Amino acid sequence: xxxxxxxxxxxxxxxxxxxxxxxxxxxxxxxxxxxxxxxxxxxxxxxxxxxxxxxxxxxxxxxxxxxxxxxxxxxxxxxxxxxxxxxxxxxxxxxxxxxxxxxxxxxxxxxxxxxxxxxxxxxxxxxxxxxxxxxxxxxxxxxxxxxxxxxxxxxxxxxxxxxxxxxxxxxxxxxxxxxxxxxxxxxxxxxxxxxxxxxxxxxxxxxxxxxxxxxxxxxxxxxxxxxxxxxxxxxxxxxxxxxxxxxxxxxxxxxxxxxxxxxxxxxxxxxxxxxxxxxxxxxxxxxxxxxxxxxxxxxxxxxxxxxxxxxxxxxxxxxxxxxxxxxxxxxxxxxxxxxxxxxxxxxxxxxxxxxxxxxxxxxxxxxxxxxxxxxxxxxxxxxxxxxxxxxxxxxxxxxxxxxxxxxxxxxxxxxxxxxxxxxxxxxxxxxxxxxxxxxxxxxxxxxxxxxxxxxxxxxxxxxxxxxxxxxxxxxxxxxxxxxxxxxxxxxxxx
Length: 494
Known about the structure:
Shape: elongated
Distance between the termini: 53 Å
Number of helices: 12
Number of strands: 25
Helix content: 10-25%
Strand content: 25-35%
CATH architecture of the largest domain: 3-Layer(aba) Sandwich
């Protein structure tokens, strides 16, 4: 009988009990049940679950018979009700004032409301810990997402008062990272401040398996092919988020700002290789030149949560393209980092994040189709607005190690492929060496975007182009290939 009920829920997601309609919405391995109890004639405050108040507001789920349109959303916002999240068709996370008169939702197709319970906000892979409240020495690192209309400092103080340990509070983020005893997860989830709790993602590793990029961007630079155009990225500012400070190298003379790096010392050569492919000038060796040798370069230490100094640099310095060739997992889904990078581009339409797709092409990352499928290395690469790049040899064959899609929800990734394998690029102390992998393919795309950005500005009186337009132009004019796979025998495991 239990199996029959489960099947019924999954097929219809609705049921009828005692003549009353119920809607069952799946969430994190559980269900939220909404009874059709909404009455437009009764004050709203009397129909909401009596959830704990925080800073004068209460937080609940709301179900509508159909998704709200833009006009309805704006009308609700004007009433003082905050729409904080969209969970499922017709399901919203809302916050309402404690003191609310009348029924500002009386003209909306509301089914009913439900409290935000721990099983609704805790990630599915952590659900088993909600049932285990026995004291133990096991600890778990968590990223705790705070309701969007709460002040983070206030919530941090409340968390500390409850005896939880704060790992970090990323700048500009509406979440904090905690380490807690595993048996205290239920206690944490009962606090009324959070919309989602999940495991903290890995810190990130450079995707460096040797190479550099070489593309048809030379057609945009050459005066012989396109007289008077000469698109070398001049006037465009690009940020390489990698292992921090680069160089010294003559190829970046007068065009690099490293004031946002944490220390004066070098932390590796990965960022040097990536930077040279984006914007190396070819001063040392003329044939070792990046895609946009006229662009201005900024460098920053990579922060996996994308909430370091990135947006400060974007806003203060006018950066419009970033490149990150780091991994942090494997096809992990639409994570908090994915939300962050998609939101940054959505809120800043001139900005584009370019990512390496990863070097896990032969791996099985749990997508369900075995090796060579669904192994993009990191949730941030699954973004809808950003670009993830696969790795090609210069004969247009796919490098075996290059990660492939789809992402966890079936969307196509990578977005585009580029030549990254066996490329010469800049290395510290005015040297040249080989680099490669998707780490080298991604900056090739970032450099081409800088060229296109410059071209748009020249043709539109200096106005910045929408990054979505440039992404569309890049993807729709790329060559469609039936790509054979060729194994690389270069050192580094490619």
